Structure prediction request, 478 residues.
Amino acid sequence: MKKILLIVSVLSVYHGCSQKKDKNIVKNNLTEAHSSNVEHVLRQQLEKGISGEILNSLDTETYTYSKEDMEVVIPVAEKIILSKGYIPPSNKAFSEKVQMIFKRKIDFNLSSKYLYLNFNEKCDKEVKYYRNDKSVDVTPYSYYIIKNNNFITELYAIPELIDYKNAYPKLAEFEKKSMEKYMEDGDEVKIYKWKDVSDLKERRQNNIQILVNRNKYLFNDDRAGFVWLRSNDTWFLESLVKTFGYVEDKALLDFVLKENYKDLAELEKILISRSCGGKNRLNTEVFAVVKGWKKKELSAFSFRIQELMYTLIKKEEQGKSEINFPELTKILCETAYHMSKTDEDSYYNFFPILNLTEKYREEIEKKNFYNNSDLKKVWEETKTGGRWRAGMEEASLKRETLETITLYPRPDFSSTPKQLEISSEDIEYLHKVSDWDFVRVPHMVGYLAPKNPKKHSFLVEEDFTPKEEKGFWDKLFG
Prediction:
């Protein structure tokens, strides 16, 4: 019996060692196969160089990157980030984060190894192979979400990640002896080699830091990674918000807002997200962030929002809006509502912009104030600038002297005016915008045209001079 047990034990130990040995053999074979692939691709990249020059003046690409290059980068990049402390999330956690940030769904059942991200056109999902070095050709900024390995990377050339001279000395020698030039379409192309890139070491170190900190921030919620990116990879961070509509990280949103809100085009990208399906969404998360800003900064932000509202209205009138009228009205109305609640000092400044134009008033009322009773309350309180009170209209009718005025919705003769019969006492002059008077009358605000109008349009950039103190419309295009 003891002999049998001894034989079984020996066989079990032998079987366990055999299994472990088999796994090591498989692992070593995979490592060897990968190393062989790296050498093969690296040889091609070194032979063709980083770029070329035609006629000593024109830069040209000498190497076309492909799926083969990408396949080699994946394990190299993974090894780097793991060695720097990156912790790959579970497939579920990774998939949820990718959906939240990039609005892309990962199907782990598909055989594809990665998803393609075009940071210039987020709806483009067709895989392309481009490095993000734009020194020669202007191509889309491209990134790749690696499934199962669960990280994000660019397509790098191997010399941009590996010190190939030390890791592959034979290939470094090959590069020295490889061709210096070649002929293409009758022109001589001089090859600019990787070994001649004077700051290649610094580039490589920076690439590794970018690769590591992007992944640690996005998928490990690493705040140190975010701080590093904020100083060294601003464009990437801003693209997450402005291109993909990632607004769930308040610290990121705060940073991107403060960097961009003074530029109306960039502010629009942050405030309104457009899905690939064509729907537009107001990112209300913005208002919660700016509510915590200092008073002076919040006031400046409020002016920019008012400017943006006016600009969007103008684009719609000119037929240049990318947003259909019902969606635009809802976005403008909700923007006015949230800003009225966010900046108490500008409470009366937002809804009057929409109240100037009848079709916006009608759309808002038709949609029942978007089933928001508080929005309706703020609209009623602020739509005329907050000065009108019940009984004022009746009192004005009792006055003996009435005059007819022409009130424009904008300081622009091309806008459609209204003729009003009103007492001069009911006209409150607020301030000037160019040479137009911005006034408040019962139930509305608007513009009185100058007696001697300037030849150029108000819409041309100029310095607005206030009557008493600068308000929103004075700073509208300042």
